[in-house]
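Posting here for the record, re: 2-acetamido-2-deoxy-beta-D-glucopyranose.
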Amino acid sequence: MLLLPLVLTGLFATGTAADNSTWTENVQGLFSESMTWMDRYYDSSLGYLYDLDREDALRHNTRSSAWYALGLLARNEDNDVDEAEKIIANVIGGQFTDESKQWYGTYQKYPEEPEVGTAVYPARIYSSWDPNWRGFVGTTFIVMLEEYSDRLSDETQELILDSLYHATVGDTYRVGGVNGDNLYPAYSNPAIMRAFVSGWLGHRTNDDNMTTSGEAYAQEIIELFNITDTLSEFNSGTYTGVSLFGLTLWSTYLPEDSVMSKVGPVMLRETWEAVAQLWHPGMKNMAGPWDRAYGYDMNRYLSVMALWFWAYLGKDASSVIDQPEIMTHSADYAWAPLVAVLANAQAELLPDDFFDGLKTFDEDRIFEAQAYYPPYDLDIRNITTSLSEKVTVGGMTYRQTQGGGPTGSSTSFTPAVIQWTTDDEVAFLTLRPTERALRSEVSPGRLSLTYPDGDASTVFTLAVSTFLGKPTLSSLGDIPGLEISVSGNVNTSYSLAFAGENGGSASPAHTFEYWSFTFSMPDEFEGAPNLLLELQPR
Ligand SMILES: *[C@@H]1O[C@H](CO)[C@@H](O)[C@H](O)[C@H]1NC(C)=O
Ligand SMILES: *[C@@H]1O[C@H](CO)[C@@H](O)[C@H](O)[C@H]1NC(C)=O
Ligand SMILES: *[C@@H]1O[C@H](CO)[C@@H](O)[C@H](O)[C@H]1NC(C)=O
Ligand SMILES: *[C@@H]1O[C@H](CO)[C@@H](O)[C@H](O)[C@H]1NC(C)=O
Ligand SMILES: *[C@@H]1O[C@H](CO)[C@@H](O)[C@H](O)[C@H]1NC(C)=O
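Prediction output follows.
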């Protein structure tokens, strides 16, 4: 149950970040390093960043350009502000303004893109157009107006307000389950942004209908959170970072009478408390299970959470390497200016010493939580994670409407995860879920997985990391650092395959190569398939 604090935080605090002399050294480092990196991708002749994924034949990118423009406004040196205004005008020039289209109010993904919804370039949600970019770009525009309006011309500010109007109204076209859209209040990160932009713009322009619409959408998100005290989109290195960003906006830029400014600080704190339990400072990873993963080791893919950890714990203690731009999913490094600008505002919502406890692993523990993501969850999910210095084991129990979680991706929805340290690296073993329901039981050194609706044709597929010190595996016994014994009612013979960039019978997942161990059921099996893994560090 959500308990409101007696003294409400989240007063109408504006302009908190503009004075960058209050930024900590860590925040300044995050900001400056990321800007130096993005400066080299900036195409001033066009007023856009080149795409930050390096395999793009010098196409440009709208969303990261908007984030960079915020960074330019914050840095405010030489011609930074002029370049920012140029980018802002370009981004808005690429916004879809035909109200009759489903993609009304979102932003084109790149300036070279053909017209969406034509015979030669059909509209495809999350592909030729992305409904979430209304929120990503819209929230960035609001941070610009809140923090740096004195650096922006009146004309640019008008342009932004007009653009926010289109983005807000366009976002109301989104109804989960209709026209291929999936924006339910449970889709936490864009839902939080949608409620915020609508509430903020309604206040700013005295559009009561818009205010009411944002507040009502926020109420739905809050009621959902209140069931389990967790975000529906739970524990994701990338998306928990985005939701925390959104909750910081709720808590910082809305008037006192907004339900978002009242409840946002509580949701933010409870979300951080779960993160603090799952964060393993030794492994520099958030232990599993993960609702949505873009990789299986946060030291090798760049997550938005890593940028928050950089801001609060320092770069060395965070899960980025010295050269973050080399990591998988590095385009998300472009979130850094937003994270830097909002770092103080978020820290003010947490206890003073909150981050001290995240610097060293000092206590073996069992973390338990629930999460609920309707309409995909048919029942509340149960999550248990065991953390010790050398091994973490996380498992989820769920019953859902489809395989692969709400987004239908069995490489991203990761309901069972073991991570451990070898001499060289952080290793992982994950379940590649193949069924719509799973029961997990977790205790230190033990993971039991049962597919309640399975049968003789059920398989358990485990994806195991590659190892620098042992490039070729021929059996489970070859796995470095962890002795794994298998039992349950599966046939303990297994097939082994390699998912390699250049060979092997499977393909890497989110660029991670892995070993695939597949267990089948014995001939003529009856009952609920179960695989039991017992683990011993070695
Ligand atoms: C802080 O702001 C000043 C003046 O606007 C600017 O010169 C400086 O580069 C900024 N610092 C960072 C870390 O961006
Ligand atoms: C008010 O908001 C609702 C829901 O967001 C929308 O459908 C409706 O068109 C709006 N009405 C006006 C007058 O803006
Ligand atoms: C959360 O739910 C409880 C009832 O279970 C209710 O009393 C409380 O007001 C709710 N809190 C919010 C913020 O909605
Ligand atoms: C999770 O646990 C609760 C009770 O603790 C139970 O009611 C619910 O059915 C469980 N969820 C699943 C998917 O089994
Ligand atoms: C287990 O799998 C092996 C290898 O596929 C097979 O030879 C054996 O017959 C299976 N055992 C049972 C009980 O199904």
